Amino acid sequence: QWNMAGYRDAKIADIRAEVGDGKVICGLSGGVDSAVAAVLIHAAIGDQLTCVFVDHGLMRQGEAEQVVSLFREHYHIPLVHVDAADMFLAGLAGVSDPEQKRKFIGGAFIDVFEAEARKIGGAKFLAQGTLYPDVIESVSFTGGPSVTIKSHHNVGGLPARMNMALVEPLRELFKDEVRRLGVELGLPPAFVGRHPFPGPGLAIRIPGEVTREACDTLRKADAIYLDEIRKAGLYDEIWQAFAVLLPVRTVGVMGDGRTYDKVCGLRAVTSVDGMTADVYPFESAFLSRCATRIVNEVPGINRVVYDYTSKPPGTIEWE
Ligand code: XMP
Questions:
Q1: How far from the centroid of its chain's Cα atoms is residue 149's Cα?
Q2: What does the entry list as the binding residues for ATP (predicted)?
Q3: How far does the centroid of ligand 1 lie from the alpha carbon of residue 30, in Å?
Q4: Is the dihedral of CA 57, 59, 200, 166 positive or negative?
Q5: Which of 26, 71, 118, 316 is the most buried (most CB within 10 A)?
């Protein structure tokens, strides 16, 4: 347990010492961690910081707009909004291996950051909201031999050729500590309480090949699921809830007709730090309501399943 006001002040001093009068680019992902890192670094070095929000086309519904308005309108922190959806989706075409997706996305982020660094006359530093669990999970698995489970996009996904130094002020922290630090820095509680969202975004919630059409379908199902969770007052009890879109088609019947469409998986877990997780025990009426709405409202999905796997042996994300 850190004393967060003291931690904030110590980190501000560290960041100033680390970057001197250099320029820093901070990649915003839409999630809580990178937002907290950005606000902390801005408190330390002000306009030496440029935030870059890379819209990779793998965001959830409404996410890009929320991040841009929070930073520009609420914080008045300069923000470059890069629309890179075409580049990311083109690079993901034909890729279905989970680690290859992660490696491509990690590398593509760096390409965008390096291009932006050149535009502002050379930034020597890249800031990221890497947390302690990201570091651990990318290098080994608790108790086992040293095996990579997943290359978190901001750790094992980074290419060796990158020529900026990393600034990672949250590297010692767990999620609950980052949330407390965010509150200390004045971020709105509703933003700080958002569920985690992984940097590779919807790409790791679509097993198999990622297409624009699959992303659009998944965004609709995910928005319905989260809408139902919010309406039931369950959002804050859950660590993370999301939909996945499976590359499997099954037969169904709607009205008088046969359907042959994709399967949507629903996931919800409780957790303290994301390292282990339990399945959230929804009432069956709640899950039925979600299934009915998703099948009725989302073209291309005709079946909904609930993922009943804890972590371990499952992981939270499906890839
Ligand atoms: P897993 O799926 O490994 O996820 O059980 C644990 C937590 O980490 C998040 N996650 C990521 N976050 N970049 C991130 O910023 C990533 O590449 C990444 N992969 C997984 C996941 O959403 C969960 O909260």
A1: 17
A2: 29-35
A3: 14
A4: positive
A5: 26
Contact assessment for residue 32 and residue 3, using Cβ atoms and an 8 Å cutoff: no
Residue 149 has a pLDDT of 84
> Rounded to the nearest whole angstrom, what is the distance from the C-alpha of residue 106 to the centroid of ligand 1?
13
Ligand 1 touching residue 315 (CB < 6 A) = yes
Strands 257-270 and 240-254, sheet pairing: antiparallel
Q: Assess: ipTM above 0.95.
A: yes
pLDDT in tens, 200-235: 999 999 999 999 999 999 999 999 999 999 999 999
Domains within the chain, CATH numbers bracketed? 4-192 (3.40.50.620), 211-306 (3.30.300.10)
CB-ligand 1 contact for 201 (6 Å cutoff): no
119 alpha carbon to ligand 1 midpoint, in Å? 31
Q: Is the CB of 198 under 6 A from ligand 1?
A: yes
Q: Is 152 in the pocket of ligand 1 (CB under 6 A)?
A: yes
